[in-house]
Write a structure and sequence with these properties.
about 130 residues; mainly alpha
């Protein structure tokens, strides 16, 4: 379980760095700045909107836990979707920002497993078992 927490922390860090970079590259304004009468929380954010950082974060965190114990995904994916929906409901993100965040978080949550499984395969490829 401790390893899974480490994997989630690593994927969270990588997703956060990616989101910060993308928000600087793609400067998309938030919905409440461009839509009149948009619903918004009391203290709106001032950073750019493209890719939902919260959605990216939650998806990148749950992927390692879902990979290790797939039955947990029955609870974790709906939870992650609720986080994304709440970002739209609060007027902080467009739906496309949330969908992009979910895809990015899922990819960044998966890539360490894909990379390390290939490293393991290469490491043991030339081993002879007796």
């Amino acid at each position: 379980m401790k390893v899974w927490g480490g994997e989630s922390a690593f994927t969270l860090l990588s997703s956060h760095l990616f989101v910060v970079l993308m928000k600087k590259v793609y400067s998309r304004s938030r919905p409440y700045l461009s839509i009149t009468n948009a619903r918004v929380v009391h203290d709106p954010l001032t950073e750019y909107s493209f890719r939902s950082g919260h959605t990216t974060a939650i998806f990148s965190i749950i992927i390692p836990f879902s990979i290790h114990i797939p039955i947990r995904s029955l609870f974790l994916y709906p939870l992650a979707c609720c986080v994304g929906i709440s970002r739209v409901f609060l007027g902080i993100h467009y739906p496309s920002n949330v969908v992009a965040g979910a895809f990015v978080g899922t990819f960044l949550g998966d890539w360490p497993f894909i990379f390390f499984s290939k490293v393991k395969e290469e490491k043991y490829e030339n081993c002879v078992l007796y």
